[in-house]
Structures are given as structure tokens and as C-alpha cells.
Amino acid sequence: MSVDLLRARAALSRLFEPSDMVGLALVSAAGPEQALQIATGGRQVSSALIHKTAGILTSVGVAGKGYALAEGLKRWRPRVADLAPDRDLETIRRLGGELLIPEDPRWPEALSHLELGMPLCLWVRGQLAGGLPDMKRTVALVGSRDATGYGLSITGDLSAGLASRGYTVVSGGAYGIDAQAHRAALAATLPEAAGSGISTIAVMACGADRFYPAGNEDLLRAIAEHGLLLSEVPPGSAPTRWRFLQRNRIIAALSAVTVVVEARWRSGALNTAHHAAELGREVGAVPGSVYSANSAGCHRLLRDGSAVCVTDAQEVAELAGPLTQEVPEVAQAVESASQSGPGSAARAREKRSDHDGLAVEDLLLLDALPVRSDTSIDKLASVAGLPVAGVRAGLARLELEGLAIRAGPDGWRRGKR
Amino acid sequence: MSVDLLRARAALSRLFEPSDMVGLALVSAAGPEQALQIATGGRQVSSALIHKTAGILTSVGVAGKGYALAEGLKRWRPRVADLAPDRDLETIRRLGGELLIPEDPRWPEALSHLELGMPLCLWVRGQLAGGLPDMKRTVALVGSRDATGYGLSITGDLSAGLASRGYTVVSGGAYGIDAQAHRAALAATLPEAAGSGISTIAVMACGADRFYPAGNEDLLRAIAEHGLLLSEVPPGSAPTRWRFLQRNRIIAALSAVTVVVEARWRSGALNTAHHAAELGREVGAVPGSVYSANSAGCHRLLRDGSAVCVTDAQEVAELAGPLTQEVPEVAQAVESASQSGPGSAARAREKRSDHDGLAVEDLLLLDALPVRSDTSIDKLASVAGLPVAGVRAGLARLELEGLAIRAGPDGWRRGKR
């Protein structure tokens, strides 16, 4: 892979804000190296290229007027003096990381679903040896920073359950739900399984050299060591609101499913969910109390049909679809041990009833059988509303099930299965 | 209306179990009076009638073999001796009630959607003067008997909110969610509004003369006095499992929306929801904790797409569609006072942020403005990634909003809206 390509994309990632569609169209039309020359004013832009760039913008629905590129050039000019791609590449290398670019075979295929909005590159720290995990085994867990105890609890259960099933948990490295998702995934990765997979990925809105927010420093350091920390903006970049919003599209694109665990009526997590829906990815939402403002955003997604209700790791895994890739044996063992998520517990508590699986006639007959006294077949026929022959046949069936007890030549009462 | 019709339907409702499709097909083919004569063995059944009955059964998808009617006759025979329609009619009259039959103009149109499964008649106690309320202003609230405090709380909020908006709340008169739904609807009916509408209807699985379960006697008595208590089975009938299941179809058919407030993974309330869905009625489910077994049934409905997520009375009312009928003024006043359900409270707590409604350029600029120091326009252009002219224009807009403060000839900092 050409060093010039790496340098060009490194520089462009500082010149352009994330999702600068004009810049991305220019790169698409001229290639990264020529685009950098043009964007920095080192090369005149031909009218053919202006036309081609405008065409690309029009094709993706961005108002692609002729002056879009001219506007872009004005926008990029003030940053040209700040460009130092070699320094940035050296910074990420010093941190044990590297710059991943679309020309690299390890570039995640899943990001190409962002089309023109695909990041220029990813500044990565962590265990990139085998590339990013397959989208099919990647799930995003997102939610509010000011999480409730309920939200933290279910996030821990979901994340641990998914990690132990062999899924990678993606989130945004923020306080609250994000931090809990990363933490539980890291903790669920057993020592024996270490190295067999990436349990968690944090996608940052700031440079990958910064641990932001500061309170998550230890956690983010652990992710950079045992998982992956990545960002489309170069080292030193500050986390701005725009970058937070754009960062969310990367979280959504990397994941087969995006689950919103807790979110207020208006929340950044909903933005991630919308990105996922736009990409045709599955969206899950965890229900909660209708009195909790932190679940209002989840209920909003459920209500408008944008999300599927998920209550445990198994249901999230079902949304992600079957795992085609091989799951390590250790993870399989953990999986079978951890089948008892909250939802499955609720189901398991439901015990089988006497009347389960009975045909209508037998149900009518069972209800007509007295518990504490005996009754005759004629009386049963009248009470149950069944023919006498039907009562005889039904009593034989119920007797086999232990639900009817013969108490004499013509006397019957109810039994207990 | 013919007394013979009343007597025939009264007798048939004792002879047939609810939803005895063969019996109902016979009534449909021969009319109630002739059907009674045949069902009681007082009249031979012609081969033409056998054919017609079988045809009706086939048309509704019930296996309509030729011997279906013969089987029915055997089933009904044991009950013939128990028939006493005059006594039953006298009983309901003595209780201040009456027998409502499909030939009565007050018969609710909504029940005809049950087609062949429409009840033969309804044994009614209560305020029937103006007939049953329009389906469009009727909502069913159903759920577990062993409700949690959470379930009771939201049921009370929903029911009171709906009743004060002019809706009639239908339920099954059972313990738990049902009882709370009836109670809150009765309580929400202000004295001034009394008589203007029926706040609640209990559909019973036993005879309307019985207050079952006994612990709800006072409540059911109040419903029979101020609302409506109804049943398709005649006075004296016991509540059997079959009758509970069939009763649910009446609850669903009478209501524009069926809301499951709390239900276990397997619950009778889900049966009501399925009836509602089969009738093409709206189904709502209230979300709750994923750790609560009592919400597992609701989440199941949300997950498989059978129900819409509802969190307050307003959302339920939206499902029911706009009220065409006139709402009493008192109810309107209460309505506007009670707009603050749980869901709306969660939304209201969300306050407007500084960056709301800003265009992307202004968002980038706002994030680039320092809070505690001043900065220059050139620096802002580089940090925000905007052209210098764009920064000037943006600062002017943000200054108008109070979000940017001029701190000298070329110095700017952030303001607070």
C-alpha cells in the first residue's frame, strides 16, 4: 500500500470535517492524492473535474451546484496551514496504532454501505491484527450518559451475554450506557478466549490519542489494549457536536444490530438508531417503565415501528441473524451457561398448567369435573354441554392424563396432573 | 320485538356453549325459534337444513361435515331438561337488567364483526337506556390478575385519562388490572357528567346475576349500577375456562383498541389481544421492566409486532382514532387538565438545548467558539472548518440568538441562549 495514499488520506481527514460530502465527492472523482493537491490549492481544478464532482453530489441527492467545490475550497483553506500528516501518522504509531484506509484489505466491507459518506480513513488503536470483526457478529449498544440503575443493569446483561456468545459490542465510549456496555464486554471475555476475538470497540468523536471523557480514561485505555478504539478524525481533534453526530453513523454501519438501551425522548442514541435504520440495519430498543424519562426514547422507537422490542441477549442475537463464523468452544460453553437472561427467566417462570394442550371438548369436560365431590356422566354431559358418548370418551382421555379420577361405577371427579 | 324471539335466544344461550359454531350456524340457517325447536328435539331437521347448515360452517372455515348437526344434537340433548327461559328472563328483569338481542336496534353493530361467532344475545345489567357506547369511543384495558404496583399504577392513569376524555373502559371484572381499570374509570366520572355516558363495562364469563370473583362484589355492584355488566351466558352460569376464553372475544369486539397493560408470557390477556388483532382492531401494549415477568407478555406482543407501544392515555386515544361523537364539556375540561400522563411528562422534562434548530454550519461554529476565552475569525474558520466569509455570516446569526458574544474588534466567545 502506497505511503502517499496513507499520507493523503491522513491529511484529508484533517482538512475535511466528517461527512463533508463535497470533499468526499472530490476524493471519489479525483482520488485521494489529487484531491489533496486540489483542496490545498496546489493544483488547479479542471472544469471536467468540477462537472464530475457535481455529478457525484447530484447522484447522492446533495445539492450539487457548480459552486459547491468553490465553496469547499474556501472552507478548507483556513486549515491548510495545520496539515502535518507525517506527524499524525507518527503519533498513532507511537500509540501502538495505525491508520486504516479503504485501500487496505482489512478495511471493513460494512462501511461501504455508507456510500459517499464512508469515512476517509480510520485512526485505530488496539488489536487490529485480524482486521475488524465481521458485521454479522457485531452489535452496537447505545444509550444515555445519565443512565438509571435499570439501564446499567440490563446493559451489563446484554453486553456480557453478547460477548460470551462471540459477538463484538460496539459503543461510543461515553459515560453511562456506553461505558457499561464496554466494561461488561471486556469482563465477559474469559482469559482463555483472549486473542480469539475483539470483545468491544469504542468509536470516538475525538482523536484516538485522547481519552475522552476524562472519567473514562482507564476504561478507554483498557479498550485500546484489549479491544479497538477508533476515530475518523486525526489525533488531537476535539470532540464537537457535529463529530458526535457523524461518529454515530460509523457505530451503526459497523453493526448488524443497533440496540438503544435507554434514551430520553430526544437523545443522541436515537440518532444512531436512525443511521442504522437508514442503512437497513436492524434496530432494537429495550422497554422500561413508562414513568422513566430515560426510557421515553426507546418507547418512541417502539411506538413508531423503527425498533424491535428486545429484552435479553438471545433476542438481540436473533436480530443479528445466525452466526456463520466459527464460535470458539469456550464461548459456546459460556453461551449455554448464560441462556438465562432476564427475558428467558420471565418465560421460564411460567409453569405448565393442567389444561395445556387439551382439545376444546376435554377442556369443557375438565372444567365440569368437580374437585371435592363425585358426579355422574349424565350430569357431566349437561354441565359441559357435550353428548353422553363424548363425555365417556373424554373421561377416558383425561383419566390417562391423570386429570379425571374414577370414583365408582358411574362417579367421577377431577385429578391433578 | 317478539317475545318469542327473546325466549328463543334466552333458551339457546343456555343450550349452546359460547361460540358453538354448529349451533350458531343452525340459528343462522333456520332462525332462532325454529333452531330452538330443532335443537330441543321438538322438530325434525330437514335434509335441506342440514345442507344449509353445513354450507354455512364450510364458508366460515369450520369443518362442516354432514354429521356436524347430528353431533350438535347429541351435545345439546343433555341440557334440554334445564331450559327455563321465562325464569331466566324474570331473573334478569328482577335485577334491573334485560336481555339484549341482535334484533334489537340497540344491539352493538361492533359485535357483527364476529360474524358467525357473534353472541346469541347479551344478558345486561346497568345503564342500557341509550344502548352501548359507540365502538370508536370504547377501549379495552386488560391484564394479569396478579398485577404489580407498576401495573396497577399505569392502569389507573390510563383508565382515568381515557374515561375523562369521554371513552368507555371495557374489561373483564377480574382481580388486578381488570378491577383497577373499572375502578379508575368509575372514579373519573365526575358527578356533573354522570348519566352523560357509560364510563365502564365489565364483560363476565359467568351469569350476569353473579358477582364473580367474590372479592370484587362491591366493585361489580357499582359497575352494574353506574356502568354496564354483561354476559352471553344466562343467569346462574358458572365461569369456566372456555367461557373465559370466549368472553375475551366480546371484550375485543366491543372496543376500538385493546390495551394489554401487564401480562405474563402466557396470559389470558394475550388471548384478548389475539381476538382484537383477528378482528382488525388496534392492539396496544404497555412496556415495563425486562426483569418483570408480568411485562413479558406485553414485550412478546411488541416484539412480534402484534401490538403498538403505548405509554399514556393520549397515545391510546390516538390508536382509537379521532372522536366523532360530541364530548361533554366537563370531560373536555378534565381532558385538558389531565394531558400530563406519564409519557407526556417524560417528554415535557426534555428542555430545549442551545444547539436546537441550528444549521450545520452554525453548529460547527458554535462548537468552535470558546467559552472562557476570546478567539479570532481566522482561528474560528480553521477550527470549525468553514470559510472566513461563512464564519462572519454565522457569527452574525449566532449573535442574534445570543449564542455568540463580540468581545472586541476581532474577538468572539460563546454566549448562552
TrEMBL record, chains A, B:
InterPro entries: DprA (IPR003488), DrpA_SLOG (IPR057666). Residues 99-318 form the Smf/DprA SLOG domain. GO terms for biological process: DNA-mediated transformation. It comes from the Bacteria. Pfam families: DNA_processg_A (PF02481). Belongs to the DprA/Smf family. NCBIfam families: dprA (TIGR00732). This is DNA-processing protein DprA. It comes from Arthrobacter zhangbolii.
